[in-house]
Design brief:
heterotetramer, A: 342 residues, alpha/beta, Rossmann fold, 2 domains, eight-stranded mixed beta sheet, three-stranded antiparallel beta sheet, 11 helices, 29% helix, 18% strand, B: 616 residues, Pyruvate-ferredoxin Oxidoreductase, domain 3, six-stranded mixed beta sheet, binds thiamine diphosphate, binds iron/sulfur cluster, binds magnesium ion
Chain lengths: 342, 616, 616, 342
């Protein structure tokens, strides 16, 4: 891969301020989006990438206003197409660090297809999915991640739609990197953002995000500092799946089913399942726990495997063709094929 | 019986057979050979929407027509002079078009009872007297290739399949064509299966010799080389030419090129051709659908590539919303639409010109997009090149309309030299040109073209945001201000309107003042030209104008129209350009509308001209 | 100081404040109360694209205007007579529109230094003399509600929020409105939080009493009941009326109704309204995107439901391809497009009429679709009803155009009785009518309407297949036959053209022969009417025609046009109907094009009329 | 649920012939589509449903010509939208037995989004995905299921796209029924079709289908009768996962990884993993084996769970609303809301 096609990672002296443009942020006071913005503005300078080498691409939605608040190259596109547009950006200019910001509606309702195809192709793009389980910008209809029964503007009698678990869809679509974070947990989000950046291939990051206006408290159990320890499981590669206020609960496999146990005599820490981000069986097990009340909701990097990326494939195919057939210029182009002279 | 050699000016041959009979390939080989022999020509493939409909049925007939001649050839011919009919269905479907007294070359072996019945013949037309007004050559091709290839080592099925090559051999003999180039081509194509290559070559030789030796053919023809300008030539289909035009534009501009596309008949070949050009640095991205095709291209354009997307009618419909995004963000983008029969899935493998209004108006809001059209297969090259140049120069999406007839049809193309191509310079704003005091302004326009600057992500100091919301001019900030929207809407309209400055003076074929003007656009050029030419030769007062630019229209058109009593607009649709001319010039026009999935014949135009002018 | 009571014919009030100040709600309550009080009225909500932009900024201002009067009210008013400004930004944005001498009612407590700065005021306009040409009432609303609700048990934040109710109370007093209906409404809305209901009621009362007691207001106004026909009324927005019209059509036809839709501003409210009507058997399907919205509706139509889909511009673009499918399969379908500012995402919360050309031409192939437009909020009911009736009668998709102004705007609607609604009969072919001998033919047409039969899956013996490929007439079999395509294309065009028989004689407001005709379509009706009316009263020779049908156009239009020297076409776009009139009648028109995301004002039309006629 | 909304299943005297219309079938000789058509025509009469109560809906592609060859109600729609159109058909007329026929391009390229949303909603529709790993109708471009390196018209240098496993996508999209069959294995296909019909909710059936013209032999290892036993694993609920010419191989879980073992002393049949179609961990395990050369390709019903369906939800919500608020007619509609009299 030629050099101009590689993201240049080198120490650059940037700070958060370099990424804050002068304009005013137009989210509702208290919106979870603010917190994510703050973390991204904090982490970008730490990635060793020049400001001009970032491109932030979004669709339409409250969350999709994001690029206006990042002083990088940015593109606020149309509803559902950010992933497809970002694919073009990355393939045209592989040296860019490309970030997609999308919502549960933008990314998984109208944009579901481009999303799964991006994940399948494994183009080196970072996707931040702001999941607030609602359509914010259009004032509160249920989304494909809204829970059954949700009463919203378009489901006054309760939603009869069965929701997606975005990370599960990503898994089914062959994603090579799947992580989950929550707006209010700054530390976990920072880690996840950094790992996402470091992963080659499409990184899919689902961020639980509170919409104070239309779906306030949707993630109360895991955002409330008091209830979080019992409802959230933060996984780390190679470490046992332990949670609880006193880190006294763990996950084991019982037959062919997962189970929550109290760590102790019967279930010493050695029997607790160890997270392996490369094992699809483990990732699937975590995903299955997501909306299941018997289990805590898993956060952190749920899956990370190395796989060929489309962008590298494209470039190496071009390089190989040039190598083999000689680099073609305009002259050669016009001379292609069976040419005869009159 | 001795064979006489007859000199003719032009000949139209139609190859017809089952979808599995290889008619497209046979036609293409004859075409290449004929082109190399120095004739001018045009072709028209015509195949069913099914890959391989049931053998022997009318629905399964696939055809390929070409006209070649010793003068410039403008269409693929009206009625065929020669019909190659590989089975009864092919004869049934195409006989009615053959000129009276024309030649039929039939594979007698295929005229079995079963096939005759499938095709709806009551009795065998090769044997009853029904074809007596034609020159019929009924040849047992299947049997003859089996004899010729008995020792070839090929399986019986493979042997049977070479009968199309046998027919080709006969035609090579009949028209004095050199089979060598086809032998070479076969050897290359079957380089991994030399037995197959040899088998096919033997079949061609057998056919050739059959013509030469059996002497059942009383005439062989000679079509002299056409008087065509000196130069290097190659045979291209419109789709290939489009692909080359796009890539040539990128090369001339020193840009990388990105194609985002989703396969669709009859446009897929552009994608195929471009994906072969990897060593030219061409990036082809087969998207998951048409929307991803265009949006990935928009992304690539934002990131600095020369970006394009290719499709046909239903795909253009799907791209409507995204075209609006390219428009409001003022990013360069070439959108190629190879028109086919609509509405909806319609006639997917047939030609039509019915996407003009969609190209002009198929998006929400007031959004002008320049629309240009190609007029011949090789013109697709220049049209694609021009579309690219304009897209970049004016920072706008440009729609290029071709059609199935152009896309699939082929002709010899005089390859231009690198210098003959219009200059294509691009300047991207550079980091050095800006500072704290002189800030980069993403919507600051060129005074003449009104184009905004194309700043490439990765350039230091030019960080900026664009998007689909209304923008303030110069700064590019989002704005919902009432007057700003009015101003921006006018700017967008004016930018496209201003492109008239790029349009050369309108060429008139014929007198600048006459009774009738025949006005066309796109792929009907050849047929209209033939019709007008013939009428002019008969002394009719008629001229032709053919539009490359449909939006904006050439600035001189209004004045020109004043010199004509009547305007005839032939279109392969229900009158879409007619609407545009009417609304722009408040002038009535005579329409000639054909929606049959087929191109115009020169004679149709000719007849219409007479019917108008004879009345006067 | 004593308060005088002044009688006025009509008043325009604009409520303006921060997005969080509840201006839409305040406006709506005042509207409802005013409607019940017997005035005619029209409203215009105007809010930013952000849910809640930063407090105190210009971008965060949300406004609601209504005009009410003792005569028929045609628009939401040109310039407001009264401006309620809940903060400095609201005053800044809207002051320039207030009539000179108009009333400003401001919440003095919000005019803090910080807010003044955010809104760009150099000094406090309530305190310097800059507003001396207006009647300024500067009231410490926040402080006053805090006093009034000190004992209410409400949290300080909640108390602060009732300041809009305080303002409402003042206005109730000022215009002699009965607050009772709002009290009832509050009790119901906050039935689960009676403290909140009580708090808001107290705030209204406090405001009302403030007006009554403090006497700082030197005038209270009386707007007499309008002379409106007797009957039952309710207040509807255009979007609600559209929803009711669709459901009413289904009920009248005895059909189930299916709505496939994807939320989009400003159309979502139709979906919201219909999803509340579950006990009417309404099936609402919130699809994953606009394409699924329309295609699920096409499926429902195939299966026998009255099917519809609702959207706005970008969504209509996405539906383009599928509209072609409904067209070629000749299935009934109502497509409602609530237009907003384009192109692309454009001005998503603002009104515009710029999707007319898209509605007419936004699809591949030659495909005519009937297009009708609603002219007032309550007219949306009749237009939606009519669209449904026509879709079924002619077996065709029908596009209904409304816009953000109509959709969000409201007016009192005289509820029709069941019998007043046009008959709506549907006949589906029945099993009994067919046999081995008399086979069901899915494309056998009604002789007059050219509609094909609507056979419902589940009916024995009528099994058949339809699809997007070209069909043979009568049998509905797939066909690629050239002449068949020509015939079918004509049939499809003729079917829509024949719908002129459904269009009543064109109504002319004013003389049938005059110097100027003002021709409009859609949501500009009221403003044009006001403009023409005023001009007529001043003796100008001007008449008005407003189109419900844009495709086909009424048959009598051509003859009518002959009686006018000039035609003026005001549109909230760059001249889309103008194009259609020009192409159809080869006649020049004068355009008045406004693309600012705002409706026309009556005065704009009026001025234009004078500028045309005074020249003569 | 009111009766008119239920599919009527009762013995009807129909035979294969009743479903064969008079027209000619227009696939290439030898196309795998013929075999699927034959099985569907065979099984429809056995489902106890009247001919007029079947609706067959397709998109665009060779496979999507299917409705023309079934003498039922049929709709050959537009590319990628069959699942969305079928959703409307079913919701408008729940008494119909609705079948979608789609291809790997139609259903998973352009139609991917409608597909996953249908599966998520769990509308009672049967989806037959003809997977030939190629775009047939447009003459041979690679599809989202084509294998890496595939040389096709649009990938002359070999495809650099990473493929979907359709059944995995379905799994990630919360499908309640997932099965796999192959054109040439008539028996398994018949079983799968019948179970699909019997399942309430969306049934997703992937059928490996040979395209003789553009991708001949794509499934040679499992379609060839000789190699099939070693390359195909036919699973049955409650039975051990056994395969091989002599049924002598089986699947076990080793730690957190599946493994192929020879059944015998070390691995007696009792140690072989038992298929449980309701356990997502088992389904996932089978899916992970699909394109993995170390494992046989699983066929049969990979997943079947009972979940609320959207269609029943819609109808019962309407019924409940009528119950609670009274059934509304035109009169009531016009009288809704705050009405006053003048
Ligand atoms: C083509 C199109 N359809 C619909 C819309 C309307 N729309 C804008 S944002 C949105 C959903 C936003 O939801 P989500 O992506 O979850 O973002 P959030 O606002 O919740 O952050 C919709 C339906 C649109 N802008 N364009
Ligand atoms: C909107 C649109 N885009 C593209 C096409 C062209 N097209 C028709 S079928 C097809 C792919 C077919 O592949 P698949 O679904 O796998 O079906 P197969 O022919 O292999 O059975 C494509 C791209 C179309 N008809 N419509
Ligand atoms: S509506 Fe919800 S998601 Fe949107 S900005 Fe407000 S709080 Fe955030
Ligand atoms: S092209 Fe392939 S899939 Fe299509 S009909 Fe022929 S063999 Fe079947
Ligand atoms: Mg959301
Ligand atoms: Mg396929």
């Amino acid at each position: 891969m030629s050099d101009k096609n590689a993201i240049k990672v080198e120490p650059v002296a940037l700070t958060r301020k370099d990424f804050v443009p002068g304009n005013e942020v137009r989210w509702c006071p208290g919106c979870g989006d603010y917190s994510v913005l703050a973390q991204v503005q904090k982490m970008f300078p730490e990635m060793g990438i020049k400001r001009e080498d970032f491109a932030v691409i979004s669709g339409i939605g409250c969350s999709s206003r994001f690029p206006y608040y990042m002083d990088t190259y940015g593109f606020h596109t149309i509803h559902g197409r950010a992933t497809a547009i970002a694919s073009g950006v990355k393939l045209a200019n592989p040296a860019l660090s490309v970030w997609v910001v999308t919502g549960d509606g933008d990314g998984f309702s109208i944009g579901g297809n481009h999303m799964i195809h991006l994940l399948r192709r494994n183009i080196d793009i970072n996707v931040l999915l702001f999941n607030n389980r609602i359509y914010g910008l259009t004032k509160g209809q249920y989304s494909p991640t809204s829970l059954p029964g949700a009463k919203t503007k378009s489901s006054p009698f309760g939603s009869i739609d069965n929701p997606f678990i975005p990370a599960s869809v990503a898994f089914g679509a062959e994603a090579s990197f799947i992580a989950r974070a929550i707006d209010v947990d700054v530390k976990n989000m920072q880690d996840v953002l950094m790992e996402s950046h470091q992963h080659k291939g499409t990184s899919f990051v689902e961020i639980y995000q509170n919409c104070v206006i239309f779906n306030d408290g949707a993630f109360a159990d895991v955002s409330n500092k008091k209830t979080r320890p019992d409802h959230a499981l933060f996984v780390k590669h190679g470490e046992p799946m332990v949670f609880g206020a006193d880190q006294n609960k763990g996950i084991i496999i019982d037959g062919s089913h997962p189970k929550v146990v109290d760590i102790g005599k019967e279930y010493p820490i050695e029997r607790i399942l160890v997270h392996d981000k490369t094992n699809p069986l483990i990732t699937n097990l975590l995903l299955q726990m997501t909306l299941d009340n018997h289990f805590p909701t898993p956060f952190g990097v749920l899956r990370q495997v190395d796989k060929p990326t489309y962008d590298e494939g494209l470039i190496s195919q071009i390089d190989a063709a040039k190598e083999k057939l000689g680099e073609g210029g305009l002259e050669e182009l016009l001379a292609l094929g069976d040419v005869w002279e009159v | 019986m001795t064979t006489q050699v007859k000199h003719v000016d032009e000949v139209t041959i139609r190859f017809a057979g089952d979808s599995g009979d290889g008619m497209q390939l046979t036609g293409t080989r004859f075409t290449e050979t004929t082109a190399i022999a120095g004739n001018d020509l045009k072709t028209l493939p015509d195949y069913p929407a099914e890959i391989r409909a049931p053998a022997g049925t009318l629905g399964g007939v696939s055809a390929f027509q070409l006209m070649f001649g010793s003068k410039t050839v403008f269409t693929s011919g009206d009625a065929p002079d020669v019909l190659v009919a590989m089975n009864p269905a092919a004869l049934k479907v195409h006989l009615k078009e053959l000129v009276k007294g024309g030649v039929i070359l039939a594979n007698a072996d295929a005229f079995s009872d079963k096939n005759l019945k499938l095709a709806g013949w009551e009795s065998n037309p090769l044997e009853d007297d029904s074809l007596s007004s034609y020159t019929l050559y009924s040849v047992q091709m299947t049997k003859l290739v089996n004899l010729a290839l008995a020792e070839s080592g090929l399986a019986p099925k493979s042997i049977d399949r070479t009968k199309n090559m046998f027919a080709l051999g006969i035609l090579f003999w009949m028209y004095n064509r050199d089979p060598e180039p086809t032998f070479r081509w076969l050897k290359e194509k079957f380089s991994k299966a030399p037995v197959l290559a040899e088998g096919n070559i033997t079949a061609i030789k057998a056919g050739y010799n059959y013509g030469d030796i059996t002497r059942i053919f009383n005439t062989s023809y000679r079509v002299e080389r056409a008087e065509i300008p000196k130069g290097k030539y190659k045979s291209v289909t419109g789709n290939e030419a489009t692909a080359y035009g796009l890539v040539a534009a990128a090369k001339k501009a020193g840009k990388e090129i990105f194609l985002g596309s989703y396969p669709i008949t009859p446009a897929s070949e552009i994608l195929h051709t471009m994906s072969k050009l990897k060593n030219f640095g061409v990036k082809t991205f087969q998207a998951e659908d048409e929307i991803a095709g265009i949006t990935s291209a928009i992304g690539a354009s934002f990131a600095g590539d020369l970006a394009c997307t290719t499709t046909s009618g239903p795909g253009l419909a799907l791209k409507s919303e995204a075209i609006g995004l390219a428009l409001i963000t003022e990013l360069p983008l070439v959108i190629v639409n190879v028109q086919r029969g609509g509405p909806s899935t319609g006639l997917p493998t047939k030609t039509e010109q019915s996407d003009l209004l969609q190209a002009l108006y198929g998006r929400n809001g007031d959004g002008e997009v320049p629309v240009i059209a190609a007029s011949t297969p090789s013109d697709c090259f220049y049209a694609a090149y021009e579309a690219s140049r304009m897209a970049v120069k004016y920072m706008t999406p440009v729609i290029l309309l071709t059609d199935g007839y152009l896309g699939n049809g082929s002709e010899p193309w005089k390859i231009p030299s690198v210098d003959e191509l219009d200059d294509f310079e691009i300047s991207h704003p550079k980091a050095e040109d800006f500072s704290e005091d002189v800030k980069f302004q993403p919507y600051k326009r060129d005074e003449v073209t009104l184009a905004r600057p194309w700043a490439i992500p990765g350039t230091k100091g030019l960080e900026h945001r664009i998007g689909g919301l209304e923008k303030v001019d110069v700064s590019g900030d989002v704005s919902y201000e009432p007057m700003n929207h009015q101003v921006m809407t006018h700017l967008r309209v004016d930018k496209v309107a201003g492109m008239t400055r790029e349009i050369p003076q309108t060429e008139i074929f014929g007198e600048a003042k006459a009774k009738l003007l025949v006005l066309g656009w796109g792929g009907t050029f050849g047929a209209i030209h033939v019709g007008v030419d013939r009428a002019q030769q008969k002394g009719y007062s008629v001229s032709q104008i053919h539009l490359r630019w449909v939006n904006p229209l050439p600035a001189d058109l209004g004045d020109i129209f004043k010199n004509f009593d009547e305007i005839l607009i032939p279109e392969l649709n229900m009158g879409q350009l007619s609407k545009i001319i009417r609304m722009n010039f408040l002038r009535d026009v005579i329409q000639l509308n054909k929606v049959q999935g087929l191109p115009f014949k020169g004679s149709e135009i000719e007849t219409k001209i007479y019917s108008i002018l004879d009345k006067k």
